[in-house]
């Protein structure tokens, strides 16, 4: 007996889900054009590598920032010495302005309400420490980011109760789904402390509408609970409708009773990991109107500060308005182009996606490729993708999706050439699957499966992406 803590021996970190297992399989056999052309292509990693050249160009034009100089003088000593947990004011101002710019400057934010954290991971956990006691619950719409089981529950002892969303309305949150989740938590004797949403959504790649955000605000106001909006993908919105931050909608809700109290219960999480493609820099933030939350979270940020060197570099970059506006604009165009490439490639294989306008991935409908409508069949198909097709994609079950057959495919962490190879591998796989089912259909064994493919196609709901005529033509 090793006498380790319960935290270490329990498995609420969720690290054994297929989401993380897929990454391990990729690490063992990664694709390389020359050295390993049959290796696994990583489509399970929501990284944005599409606009690195813009950042590199900025670095080349601003050598002082990276070499720790100001007006020709070294500021090495200033940065190397102890920094307190409030963060460098110029960097906090830069983050606030960047967040406002992404929100179309429709909302004005205040840097005294911002707490810096080493990414969104500690930002979400810190909020859980501030808002819950062990055993309290947060409600999360499904499907949700696989890392939340670790980030929200593992060290805090908080619980997640799913708000069950499904494909019948494009996985949108409804009043009844919220109420069901709340009563499910009560049945489990859990005290509900809030709702956590990801807007734009990972894994759906969709933004929330005014109506949904209003519904959520009314719900948390009437239940006297918190709302956390993880807006880590806010700068990736590449098509209409535009991104709407919860902070914007909050400013419009003059009808709510005790609006000041409600305002204090709404918190935003942000990071530069996706929008600027800098997950290795570890830069994130909490934005809250509640002074006590800001004060406690600032103290807790001691456990994961952003290094002063990083803050300095990024404060220079984010204060360059010409750079930020060009970056945001250009990055969105590139994301849109990639999303189109993925959708077209999948369309050529007879596969559809949920209509999306944001993110670094598509939510892909492969229900017609399942041998049965079960999560076992989903896992079986996932294994085929990883080991036979050579693609690490993420199964819906790892995002707690309530329906088997959905997968998340990332498109921004590889070159166009590799994405093209991935699409060809999928096409070959789907063709062989359909050929197998048709050639064996004569003996009756798989008749159900091939019939099901046609049947499911017909049933594809209006929520599922349909290509415009032009896209279809280009895709050929
Ligand atoms: C919704 C969501 N929140 C938080 C994170 C963690 O981000 P970070 O690298 O800033 O810790 C991710 C990463 O994929 C994410 O998708």
From TrEMBL:
GO biological process, one term: ethylene biosynthetic process
PROSITE patterns: AA_TRANSFER_CLASS_1
Cofactor(s) recorded in Swiss-Prot or TrEMBL: pyridoxal 5'-phosphate
Any one Gene Ontology molecular-function term assigned to this protein's record: transaminase activity
Keyword Membrane among record annotations: no
Heme listed as a keyword: no
Catalyzed reaction equations: S-adenosyl-L-methionine = 1-aminocyclopropane-1-carboxylate + S-methyl-5'-thioadenosine + H(+)
First-level EC class: lyase
Domain of life, source organism: Eukaryota
The EC number(s) this enzyme carries: 4.4.1.14
Pathway, per record: Alkene biosynthesis; ethylene biosynthesis via S-adenosyl-L-methionine; ethylene from S-adenosyl-L-methionine: step 1/2
Domain Aminotransferase class I/classII large: residue ranges: 41-426
Keyword annotations from UniProtKB, A to Z: Ethylene biosynthesis, Fruit ripening, Lyase, Pyridoxal phosphate, S-adenosyl-L-methionine
Family from the record: Belongs to the class-I pyridoxal-phosphate-dependent aminotransferase family.
Protein name: 1-aminocyclopropane-1-carboxylate synthase
Species: Lithospermum erythrorhizon
């Amino acid at each position: 007996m090793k006498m380790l803590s319960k935290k270490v021996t329990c498995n609420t970190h969720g690290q054994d889900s297929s989401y993380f297992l897929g990454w391990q399989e990729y690490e063992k056999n990664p694709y390389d054009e020359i050295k390993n052309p049959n290796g696994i292509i990583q489509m399970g990693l929501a990284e944005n590598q599409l606009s690195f050249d813009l950042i590199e160009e900025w670095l080349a034009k601003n050598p002082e920032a990276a070499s720790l100089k100001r007006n020709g003088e070294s500021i090495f000593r200033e940065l190397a010495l102890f920094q307190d947990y409030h963060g460098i004011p110029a960097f906090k101002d830069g983050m606030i302005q960047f967040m406002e710019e992404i929100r179309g400057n429709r909302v004005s934010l205040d840097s005294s309400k911002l707490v810096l954290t080493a990414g969104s991971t500690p930002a979400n956990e810190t909020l859980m420490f501030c808002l819950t006691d062990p055993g309290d619950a947060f409600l999360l719409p499904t499907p949700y980011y696989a890392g939340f089981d670790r980030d929200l529950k593992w060290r805090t002892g908080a619980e997640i109760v799913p708000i069950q969303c499904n494909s019948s309305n494009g996985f949108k949150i409804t009043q009844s789904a919220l109420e069901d989740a709340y009563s499910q938590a009560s049945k489990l004797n859990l005290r509900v402390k809030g709702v956590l949403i990801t807007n734009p959504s990972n894994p759906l790649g969709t933004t929330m509408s005014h109506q949904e955000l209003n519904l959520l605000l009314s719900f948390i106001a009437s239940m006297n609970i918190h709302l956390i909006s993880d807006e880590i993908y806010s700068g990736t919105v590449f098509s209409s409708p535009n991104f709407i931050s919860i902070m914007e909608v909050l400013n419009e809700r003059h009808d709510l009773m005790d609006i000041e109290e409600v305002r204090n219960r709404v918190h935003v999480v942000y990071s530069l990991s996706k929008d600027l493609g800098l997950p290795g820099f570890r830069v994130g933030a909490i934005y809250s109107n509640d002074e006590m939350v800001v004060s406690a979270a600032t103290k807790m940020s001691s456990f994961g500060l952003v290094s002063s060197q990083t803050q300095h570099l990024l404060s220079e970059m984010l204060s360059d308005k010409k750079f930020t506006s060009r970056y945001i604009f250009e990055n969105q165009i590139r994301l849109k182009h990639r999303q189109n490439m993925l959708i077209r490639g999948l369309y050529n294989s007879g596969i559809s996606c949920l209509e999306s306008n944001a993110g670094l991935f598509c939510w892909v409908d492969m229900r017609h490729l399942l041998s049965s409508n079960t999560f076992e069949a989903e896992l079986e198909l996932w294994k085929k993708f990883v080991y036979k097709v050579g693609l690490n994609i993420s199964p819906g079950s790892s995002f707690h999706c309530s329906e088997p057959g959905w997968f998340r495919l990332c498109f921004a962490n590889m070159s166009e050439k590799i994405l093209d190879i991935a699409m060809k591998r999928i096409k070959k796989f789907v063709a062989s699957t359909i050929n197998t089912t048709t050639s064996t259909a004569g003996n009756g064994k798989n008749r159900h499966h091939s019939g099901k493919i046609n049947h499911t196609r017909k049933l594809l709901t209006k929520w599922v992406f349909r290509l415009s005529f032009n896209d279809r033509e280009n895709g050929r």
